[in-house]
Amino acid sequence: MISIIVVTTYLAYKLTLPGPDAAELALAANQETVNRVGELIILPENELPKIVVMTELNIPKDQIFFDNAEVGDQLILYPLARRAILYSPKLDKSKEAGPLSITPKAPTSDIATTESLN
């Protein structure tokens, strides 16, 4: 009986301790990926990349950058340096690296135009 109280008290205490939140865990995982890829190729400095895990492969055939992509690969984007890297954690290899082409969105007007029906 006493052991149940001790275990329950311990678990309640552990649940109240502050732990890392999801953002901290994601940042740590991203940093681990950057460190690993940085051992394979030279990365841009002074920029935190955006990292996307490929969960499906609905990529147009004309996008040759992704020819060797597999589910689970990571797309590492450096928008300021305009570089993209396709990294495979499973193989621990950089599958592809190249320039990042960013197409700006067409500006939209917030003002609706109406024509007079007179």
What does this structure look like?
The chain has 118 residues and is of the alpha+beta class. It has helices spanning 2-16, 22-40; strands at 50-53, 74-78, 83-88, 93-99. It starts with a helix and ends in a 19-residue tail after the last strand. The chain has one domain (16-99). Strands 1-2-3-4 form a four-stranded antiparallel sheet, covered by helices on one side. The longest helix is centred in the N-terminal third of the chain and has 19 residues, at 22-40. The protein is globular.
Could you give a short description of this structure?
With 118 residues, this protein is of the alpha+beta class. The protein contains two helices and four strands, in the order ααββββ.
Which regions are unreliable across 5 or more consecutive residues at pLDDT < 50? 10-14, 112-118
Number of domains: 1
The N- to C-terminal Cα distance equals 88 Å
Shape: globular
Overall strand count: 4
Chain-averaged pLDDT:
79
Largest sheet: 4 strands, antiparallel
The portion of residues assigned to helices is: 25-40%
Strand order in the largest sheet: 1-2-3-4
